[in-house]
Structures are given as structure tokens and as C-alpha cells.
Design a protein that fits this description.
Layout: H1 3-8, H2 23-36, E1 38-41, H3 47-60, E2 69-71, E3 92-94, E4 97-99, H4 109-115, H5 117-126, E5 133-134, E6 142-147, E7 153-156, E8 163-169, E9 173-174, E10 177-180, H6 191-198, E11 207-209, E12 216-219, E13 225-228, E14 231-232, E15 237-242, E16 244-245, H7 254-261, H8 266-269
Antiparallel strand pairs: 1-12, 2-3, 4-6, 5-16, 6-15, 7-13, 8-12, 8-15, 9-14, 10-11, 10-13
């Protein structure tokens, strides 16, 4: 493992360079993912690095693309023709913003961690995969999610099967990660269950996480409805999203990229689209 990553990660608890010692840790993480679709590795980064993490995030947060918009949980057009009672007819105001990868300094903590081969091998093992690949997307492979006070990231499903993220700045209050594990599957949308949560009738399904800067979160967001509640107080919530794929060369769609970052690059215009299932989105 590179010296820089060795200095960043608490290798006594998370021995990235020593796969032979991963067994009990990977077993615990995979058990979490099977039961709830989520596993949190607290204090993944060493304390001095957590301080740098916060400073670096705050420095680039002003570069985020802001575009408050009306959305639904499937991120499809809100005027789509859907039957009465369909959860896609319920709309929310999405207020989170994103700093694209090309605006995050190469030497920053999250850039070095994202590109680290030992970290990638560890992430792959956590999800039971032979390997993960960095996205070929120059904007969304790695990004910083910014939620200003009063804003929220409403209920939604991810388009990718798994997500790796890390809180870099904690808000004064609010900004709680909430999720409903396994509320749908690759074979079944379970629209009634999704609608019950959106209507406030699915309280028993909703789990809440208290995350701290430097905690690593592994999450299966394709099948779990999830959100970040409105941020309260005067300090924004920042989180890094490490986007990996099971196959190389993955690039985001033109529409979704423009929605998130306000721009597209030639790589997006020339890329095709590959789906892993036939879910609505």
C-alpha cells in the first residue's frame, strides 16, 4: 500500500495492505449488507486526516453546481404518464448540489483514496466482487455532495447497485441519512410499499444512521429507498461519493450528467448506456 494511504486510514482497524487479515471484518460487513443493505465503518480515517478532509471539502464546496428542481423517487420526468396512486406521481424538491471530480484537487484526501488500488480491492471484497473499476466518467466518478442549510436530498433510488461514501462535514443538526432496505428487488418494484413510505405510513421500514466525518459507508442503494433529511443550523452537510462499477468504461448519461453537474463533456456525448435491470430507474 502506498505510504499516503497508509497514513490516511486507521490500518490497525482496517488493514487495507493485509488482505489475509480481512476475514472477520469482511464477514461482518457482508452480513450487514445482506441484512440491511448498509454497513458503516466508523473512524475509517485517522483523526488528523479527518481534519484535512473537512478543510478540503469546504474549500471546493463553492464550486458545486446548484439546481433546485422538482423530482420523484425514480428521477424520471415528473409529467410521465403514470396510474393514479403510483409513487412516481409524488414529487419533492431536490436541493443538493454536486462538485464534479475535475474540480476536486488531485492531491486531496478523497482523490487519493478513490484511486488507491488497496482501497479498491477492499471495497470489492466488501461487496463480494472480484474487482471494482473507477468510473470512466470525468465528472461523476468522484464527487462531493453539498447540502446547504434548509435543503434536503429527498427520497430516491440509486441507478447503480452499490455506493461508497464518506461524510466530510457534519451539519449542526438535521441532515440524517434515512433508508428502507430491500424495499424492492431486481424482479419486483413493490410500488405499494414505496408509496406507503412516501405517504408517511411506512415508519417501521425506515432506518436512520448517525454518521460522522471519516466514517466509511457501504450501501446498496439500487434496491433501498433512501434520503438525507433537511439540514438545520448554519453549517452545510458535505459528503464524498466514491463511484465504482463492476465493469470498466462506465460513463453517465447526457441527461443525468447535465442534471447533476450543469454540463457535459465529449466523453458523455460519445458514450452508450448499459442497464443492469429493467426497473423504472
Amino acid at each position: 500500500m502506498s505510504t499516503s494511504v497508509e497514513r490516511m486510514v486507521d490500518t490497525a482497524r482496517y488493514p487495507l495492505a493485509r488482505p489475509a487479515e480481512w476475514g472477520p471484518l469482511i464477514d461482518r460487513i457482508q452480513a450487514d449488507l445482506r441484512s440491511s443493505g448498509c454497513s458503516v465503518l466508523p473512524d475509517f480515517l485517522r483523526p488528523p486526516v479527518r481534519d484535512a478532509l473537512g478543510r478540503e471539502g469546504a474549500a471546493v464546496a463553492p464550486l458545486a453546481h446548484y439546481d433546485v428542481e422538482t423530482v420523484n423517487v425514480y428521477n424520471i420526468a415528473t409529467d410521465s404518464e403514470l396510474p393514479e396512486g403510483h409513487p412516481g406521481r409524488v414529487t419533492f424538491e431536490r436541493g443538493n448540489a454536486f462538485v464534479a471530480r475535475d474540480r476536486i484537487p488531485p492531491g486531496s484526501v478523497i482523490q487519493r483514496l478513490y484511486s488507491s488500488e488497496p482501497f479498491q480491492r477492499f471495497v470489492a471484497a466488501c461487496f463480494g466482487l472480484p474487482r471494482v473499476f473507477e468510473l470512466a466518467d470525468p465528472l461523476s466518478g468522484l464527487c462531493l455532495n453539498v447540502l446547504q442549510p434548509g435543503k434536503e436530498h429527498p427520497w430516491h433510488f440509486d441507478t447503480n447497485e452499490f455506493t461508497v461514501s464518506m461524510l466530510t462535514q457534519e451539519p449542526e443538526a438535521g441532515g440524517v441519512f434515512e433508508y428502507c432496505p430491500n424495499i424492492r428487488s431486481a424482479e419486483a418494484e413493490n410500488f405499494d410499499d414505496v408509496r406507503s413510505v412516501l405517504d408517511g405510513r411506512g415508519g417501521s421500514r425506515v432506518r436512520r444512521l448517525s454518521l460522522r466525518p471519516g466514517d466509511l459507508q457501504l450501501f446498496k442503494g439500487r434496491y433501498a429507498l433512501h434520503r438525507v433529511s433537511a439540514v438545520e443550523g448554519t453549517r452545510a452537510r458535505h459528503s464524498a461519493i466514491f463511484a465504482y462499477s463492476e465493469r470498466p468504461g462506465v460513463i453517465g448519461s447526457v441527461a443525468r450528467t447535465r442534471q447533476l453537474f450543469g454540463r457535459v463533456l465529449p466523453a458523455h456525448l460519445n458514450a452508450g448506456s448499459v442497464r443492469v435491470d429493467q426497473l423504472l430507474d
